[in-house]
Automatic annotation (TrEMBL):
<feature type="binding site">
    <location>
        <position position="21"/>
    </location>
    <ligand>
        <name>substrate</name>
    </ligand>
</feature>
<keyword id="KW-0479">Metal-binding</keyword>
<dbReference type="GO" id="GO:0046103">
    <property type="term" value="P:inosine biosynthetic process"/>
</dbReference>
<dbReference type="InterPro" id="IPR032466">
    <property type="entry name" value="Metal_Hydrolase"/>
</dbReference>
<dbReference type="GO" id="GO:0005829">
    <property type="term" value="C:cytosol"/>
</dbReference>
<dbReference type="GO" id="GO:0043103">
    <property type="term" value="P:hypoxanthine salvage"/>
</dbReference>
<feature type="binding site">
    <location>
        <position position="176"/>
    </location>
    <ligand>
        <name>substrate</name>
    </ligand>
</feature>
<feature type="binding site">
    <location>
        <position position="203"/>
    </location>
    <ligand>
        <name>Zn(2+)</name>
    </ligand>
</feature>
<feature type="site" description="Important for catalytic activity">
    <location>
        <position position="227"/>
    </location>
</feature>
<dbReference type="GO" id="GO:0006154">
    <property type="term" value="P:adenosine catabolic process"/>
</dbReference>
<comment type="function">
    <text>Catalyzes the hydrolytic deamination of adenosine and 2-deoxyadenosine.</text>
</comment>
<dbReference type="Pfam" id="PF00962">
    <property type="entry name" value="A_deaminase"/>
</dbReference>
<feature type="binding site">
    <location>
        <position position="19"/>
    </location>
    <ligand>
        <name>Zn(2+)</name>
    </ligand>
</feature>
<dbReference type="GO" id="GO:0008270">
    <property type="term" value="F:zinc ion binding"/>
</dbReference>
<dbReference type="InterPro" id="IPR028893">
    <property type="entry name" value="A_deaminase"/>
</dbReference>
<dbReference type="InterPro" id="IPR006330">
    <property type="entry name" value="Ado/ade_deaminase"/>
</dbReference>
<keyword id="KW-0546">Nucleotide metabolism</keyword>
Length: 364
């Protein structure tokens, strides 16, 4: 018998993060500093704590326009190589301080060209920042380059992913509004990535439903699903002890397609009504390949440890559950098999075992 994990102890656990946006996790003080240095004059507040409160309020406002405005400010100050490198370095530092040992952090290079920076310089600045932060703080951070689904640069960004895959880029993603912008609009990019043996994930099943998930998997060949919460729409009798999986849900589970779930963010976007009602509870009980993530740490006012702690409170999860989520994430990462196995057997499992047991006694 073990005690329930506390937030303090969860922070000490070796964790893995697969879905985190670089421009959604900038430190408020860094936003203020970069705005002053770069002449950005549109911030809603110039004090870091006031700005932090504004970001959280805007994200929780229920207004899509105000929520999207938050990213205009973080992206607005990330328009130089120095700014991008600093934000990436601090991201690695912050994740390491939260006990994350491996992370894949995504960003859209096309959003950082306002001052004329070429895409290559943008990617190199971010990869460098992650590498420097990783070396100094004991974390490995892989970069995911993202194309915006409402734009027409996905092939260009996919080529970047392949060009820099031996220099820190581990995969490709598309993001943005799902409704009206199906992933099949970018089929040429996905087919190119498959031919190049490259990894990619697709935001699907968050703001839209099953068709988005179906297209991402069956047309585009996604390795993982960004969010994927709406897969529950293909599960009936959910409130019984015998839930029935439809063909798509069964396929996702059978093929062990990872779901990059972000509980707090999913509440903010309306994909779930409360943590206790979040589909992650059902999907975990049915043994889908569920992972736990942060999405946008600044806008959601969260960390990966806090996301785990909320799930512990809602579903009474124990250390075995948290280790299960973490191993799922490490199995689903876009680095090589040997590297994943080394982290699972050499870092994650021993780390959780130390927290679960102190000698022959349960953790107090």
């Amino acid at each position: 018998m073990t005690d329930r994990p506390t937030l303090e102890d969860i922070r000490r656990a070796p964790k893995v993060l697969l879905h985190d946006h670089l421009d959604g996790g900038v430190r408020p003080q860094t936003v203020v500093d970069l705005a002053r240095a770069g002449g950005y004059r549109n911030l809603p507040a110039e004090d870091a704590e006031e700005l932090r409160a504004w970001f959280t309020s805007a994200a929780d406002s229920g207004s899509l326009e105000r929520y999207l405005e938050t990213f205009s400010h973080t992206v607005g100050v990330m328009q130089s190589e120095d700014a991008l490198r600093r934000v990436a370095y601090e991201c690695a530092e912050d994740l390491a301080a939260d006990g994350v040992v491996y992370a894949e952090v995504r960003f859209a290079p096309e959003l950082h060209t306002q001052t004329g920076l070429p895409l290559e310089k943008i990617v190199e600045a971010v990869v460098t920042g992650f590498a420097e932060g990783g070396r100094e703080h004991g974390i490995r951070v892989g970069t995911l380059v993202t194309a915006m689904r409402h734009q027409a640069r996905s092939m260009e960004i996919a080529e970047l992913a392949v060009r820099y895959r031996d220099a820190g880029v581990v995969g490709f993603d598309i993001a943005g509004a799902e409704a009206g912008y199906p992933p099949t609009r970018h089929l040429d990019a996905f087919e190119y990535l498959q031919r190049e043996n490259a990894h990619f994930t697709i935001h699907a099943g968050e703001g839209f439903g099953l068709p988005s998930i179906w297209q991402a998997i069956q047309w585009c060949g996604a390795d993982r699903l960004g969010h994927g919460v709406r897969i529950v729409d293909d599960i009936t009798d959910r409130d019984t002890d015998r839930p029935q999986l439809g063909r798509l849900a069964a396929y996702v589970r059978d093929k062990r397609i990872p779901l990059e779930m972000c509980p707090t963010s999913n509440l903010q976007t309306g994909a779930a009504r409360s943590i206790a009602e979040h589909p992650i509870g059902l999907l975990r009980s049915l043994y889908f390949r569920v992972t736990v993530n942060t999405d946008n740490r600044l806008m959601s006012g969260t960390t990966l440890s806090e996301e785990f702690a909320k799930l512990v409170g809602a579903f009474d999860y124990d250390w075995d559950d948290l280790r299960w989520f973490t191993v799922n994430a490490m199995k689903s990462a876009f680095i090589g098999f040997d590297e994943r196995l080394e982290l699972i057997n050499g870092v994650i499992k021993p780390g959780f075992d130390r927290l679960k047991w102190h000698g022959d006694r349960p953790l107090a």
